Amino acid sequence: MKIEILGTGCSKCQALTLHVKEAVAKKGMFAQVEKVEDIMKIMAYGITSTPALVIDGTVVSSGKLLSVDEIVVFLGS
User: Fold this and answer.
1) Catalytic pick from 1, 8, 9, 10?
2) Is 10 considered catalytic here?
3) Residue 3 phi/psi, 5° resolution?
4) Which CATH number fits the domain 2-75, given the four candidates 3.30.710.10, 3.40.50.300, 3.40.30.10, 3.30.390.30?
5) What is the block-wise mean pLDDT of the chain (77 residues), using blocks of 10 residues?
């Protein structure tokens, strides 16, 4: 599973990165977690606000700081 956090480095983007790592650990799964700060790559996803969460190429959230439990739901079973 590939998880991308899209954002330019704001505090919410940094917090989302930490929450994603906590959620992955909570699920006990392996995932490639990548922080994407390149504005051109972010724009390619067509989002209008950050932070955004992308799982396996699909934007699942944009403009919201998700909690660890919300992310766990997106990670599935």
Assistant:
1) 10
2) yes
3) -120, 130
4) 3.40.30.10
5) 93 95 95 95 93 96 96 89
